[in-house]
Amino acid sequence: MVKPSEVNIQQLVELLLVRAYRERASDIHIEPRSDKVRVRFRIDGVLFERTPIVVEHSDSVVRRLKILAQLDITEQRLPQDGGFEAQTGKHKTPFRIATFPTEYGEKVVLRLLASSREAPRIDQLGYGAAREVVLKRIVNNSEGIVLVTGPTGSGKTTSMYAMLRELESAERNIVTLEDPIEYRFDSIIQGQINTRVGFTFAKGLRHILRQDPDVIMVGEMRDYETAETAFKASLTGHLVFSSLHTNSVADTFVRLLDMGLERFVVASALRAVIAQRLLRRVCLMCRSPSQLLPEHRPLLEGQTVQDGQVIYNPKGCGDCNGTGYVGRIGIFEILEVDEELADMLKFTTLTRTELKTRLREKGVVSLRECGMEQVLKGETTIEEVLRVT
After folding, report:
1. Under a CB-based contact definition with an 8 Å cutoff, are residues 232 and 145 in contact?
2. Beta strands 325-336 and 239-244, pairing class
3. Over the range 74-84, which residues count as b (16 or more CB within 10 Å of their CB) and which as e?
4. Residue 270 to residues 232, 300, 346: CA-CA distances in angstroms?
5. In whole angstroms, what is the distance from residue 204 CA to residue 190 CA?
6. Contact at 8 Å (CB) between 381 and 314?
């Protein structure tokens, strides 16, 4: 990267945005310290340091980004958020910006969005043929709620978009409430929350119900009010998709009850829970083969392991920027709620451990098991599965 002293601030910011785009970064972190401004890119879910900015340019860089996002450049004591579009080579890329006051100045996080791309199809998500059949059956319910769960950055929104694409038609009124809108559809009505004016998920969802919807997508269930409204909507003839920050299918039931929802409502409305993660894909250009070690075999319990099974380790080359990984693949834990399970949830109080046992008896494949399937296929590494699950 060109040194800040050799360019003006506008050029410096442009170079930073273009480099992040070319390196496939999902986020840019600009972090003021006492002696420098640290720059980090999140690539395939992991943060990597890049050339820092000299501390004298810190305020100017933040000011330039605020101007692009039309934020208040005089306000440095309170967090702000917004968005803008910037030219990144031949493309215009949408960015979401969030500022946060720190000891040494304002930290900025920029997220690169992808609204110019077409939403993926279900068969492009990596579920595999058997899981795709289950997912398409889930998506084609006429009512009820489908939850996609996982930590931030695990691809939940992308999965919900793929489900909406499966349902998109002129015969359905599909309405979404998002933060922010990442993909755009021709025949789906999409709304974006605006907390500055009080347009929250809960308030927006109440008004969506007056829009005669068939299908509703709520980007995230952040509080009891949103969850309660979404579940009640799903019991009155609407198909609802939403996301929740939980680690597994079993944890989702516990979280819903902890939020204050009634057990009977949860059991009656819930049609499916999909827990997911994203694993870094080992670089095909430099991966190195190795024999499966004895200490790895317990981790592969339940998998079909061939004699002389080969797995791969990351190495690092020019194609993967020395990381050993390029791109990501999804792993999924899917539970389709049938009548037997719904009745059990309505009338039986189970501990988290007991619930996990019941789910295993129903054939639910865990995230770790799904990840180890990808290890044996040569798509990722054992270390990556253990890091994520």
Report:
1. no
2. unpaired
3. eeeeeebbbbb
4. 11, 31, 11
5. 11
6. yes
* CA dist., res. 266 & res. 342, Å (int): 9
Tokens 């009656």 sit on residue = 268
Q: What are the pLDDT digits (tens) for 89-107?
A: 888 899 999 999 999 999 9
**3-state class (DSSP) for residue 325:** strand
**CB neighbours (10 Å) of residue 285?**
11
d(CA 272, CA 260): 19
Q: What is the DSSP letter of 77?
A: S
Number of helical H runs and strand E runs in the chain = 12, 15
Q: State CA 376 to chain mean position distance.
A: 25
In the numeric block, the tokens 């986020």 are attached to 27
Between CA 290 and CA 295, with CA 292 as vertex, the angle to 5 degrees is: 130
What b/e sequence results for 228-237 when a residue is b if at least 16 CB atoms lie within 10 Å of its CB, and e otherwise? Answer: bbbbbbbeee
Q: Which of 62-66, 92-96, 182-186 has the lowest mean pLDDT?
A: 182-186
Read off the pLDDT of residues 26-45 as tens digits, 9 standing for 90 and up: 999 999 999 999 999 999 99
Which residue, 169, 160, 170, 120, is CA-closest to 139? 160
46 vs 200, 282, 365, CA distance in Å?
A: 30, 14, 26
Q: Is the peptide bond between 180 and the residue preceding it cis, with omega within 30 degrees of 0? A: yes
Q: Residue 283 — very low, low, confident or very high, per pLDDT cuts 50/70/90?
A: very high
Q: What does DSSP say about strands 144-149 and 270-282: parallel, antiparallel, or unpaired?
A: parallel
Q: Which of 342-373 are b and which e, b meaning 16 or more Cβ less than 10 Å from the residue's Cβ?
A: beebeeeeeeeeebbebbeeeebbbbbbbbbb
What per-residue confidence (pLDDT) applies to 1? 47
Per-position DSSP letters for 246-294, written without gaps between them: -SSHHHHHHHHHHTT--HHHHHHHEEEEEEEEEEEEEPTTT-EEEEPPG
Average pLDDT, the chain: 92
Beta bridge partners of residue 100, listed in sequence order: 107
**E strand or H helix at 68:** helix 58-68
**Dist CA 81 CA 71 (whole Å):** 8
